[in-house]
Amino acid sequence: IPATQVASDDVSEPILNQTFEDYRRRNILLVKLKGLLRCGHTEVEKFINSSKHLRVIDHSQIIDIVRYLLIRRVPPECIMENPWLLLQQQYILRGKFLSLHAMKPRELKDFVPLLRISPLSLGKIVRKYEVEHMRIPGRHRLYYLSDRLAVEPKIVAKYLSTHQFMFYINFSTLNEILSLMVRYNVAPMNILKDLWAFRYNPHSVEFRLDRARQAEVEKPMPWMVRCPAPILEKSLQIAVENRALLGSNDTTLEYLSERLGYDLETMKYITSKHPAVLRVRMTKVKEILDFLLLEAGFSAHDIAQVPRILCHSLETTQHRLTELKEYGC
After folding, report:
1. Which pTM does this prediction carry?
2. pLDDT digits (tens, 9 = 90+) for 151-192
3. Digit-coded pLDDT (tens) for 245-299
4. Which of 68, 141, 53 is nearest to 103 (CA)?
5. CA 52 to chain centre
6. What residue ranges do the domains of the chain occupy?
7. CB 253 within 8 A of CB 238
8. Cα angle vertex 236, ends 231, 238, to 5°?
9. Full 3-state SS string of the chain
10. Angstrom distances, CA of residue 262 to CA of 146, 267, 287, 300
11. 26 near 34, Cβ under 8 Å?
């Protein structure tokens, strides 16, 4: 590409210790990708930098794979979302695309994340699909999950690609566990991010989720299904204690607003610089506030100036105050 055809905003900053030839070749690559993927220079540079492997493989290989994917009708945005595609060999991708088409996707982009799966494993998934697709709602487990959870198929595919057991567990079990999670208001993305819960017995899943409901847990999580019983009970106990401490307040923010005497907007601003404060267990927040306000003699204003103190343990706070007193502070 002649230098006169490269706009100033198409030129990236030189990298430390980069030779001029490498710098020139990299900019040519970025310009070509920008045209192929129909995106801006910043986006394509971020795309290349998203993988250390893409920064070292031959540039012609990158261009060839991108062109091949586009010929296969993979949308540019789909390529951008899955940079690992460029690390695959064309002859391997060719076989994988045959497998994807064999499962009759509504749109090819729905199944693109499954290209991460090895050819052998993908072939097994195709055979499983051929056996069961007539009796699966949506004609594919991926679409079944997508429809039930109201999540884009390509997002479901992303998580199934790393949890391939989801293609093989008994469908009635999958359906029963998913129905339980939906009934107990487990958030769709939380379900997808922790699919290991589907490896458990439905009765065990229901028992655990019911325990969470009895404890009035607002956002039950899949990990509650698979964690050891003592951890679950401890977590539920903390949830009950937190709710008791909050009283008429719905959130930690409202509790702090009430205890420190600030309006909600002001308290929101104070904690915005230290968001970790809002994730501290309520029993700990109350314990530290009681100590600082009632025993140590600090004012609400003092605490609002340094809200991060609520993240420290009571023992640490007490120890440091003792040290300060020893120094005459």
Report:
1. 0.73
2. 999 999 999 999 999 999 999 999 999 999 999 999 999 999
3. 766 666 888 888 888 999 989 999 999 988 898 888 888 888 888 888 888 888 9
4. 141
5. 21
6. 28-87, 178-246, 252-327
7. no
8. 95
9. CCHHHCCHHHCCCCCCCCCHHHHHHHHHHHHHHHHHHCCCHHHHHHHHHCCCCCCCCCHHHHHHHHHHHHHCCCCHHHHHHCHHHHHCCHHHHHHHHHHHHHCCCCCHHHHHHHHHCCHHHHHHHHHHHHHHHHHCHHHCHHHHHHHHHCCCHHHHHHHHCCCHHHHCCCHHHHHHHHHHHHHCCCCHHHHHHCHHHHHCCHHHHHHHHHHHHHCCCCCCCCHHHHCCHHHHHHHHHHHHHHHHHHCCCCCHHHHHHHHHCCCHHHHHHHHHCCHHHHHCCHHHHHHHHHHHHHHCCCCHHHHHHCHHHHHCCHHHHHHHHHHHHHCCC
10. 44, 6, 19, 9
11. no
- The sign one gets for the Cα dihedral 109, 115, 116, 120 is positive
Q: Which two tokens stand for residue 83?
A: 């940079």
The token pair that represents 106 in the structure block: 């509504």
The two three-digit tokens of residue 185, written as one number: 């208001």
Tokens of 99: 């497998």
Cα separation, 122 vs 119, whole angstroms:
5
Average pLDDT in the chain: 88
Contact of 12 with 45, CB cutoff 8 Å: yes
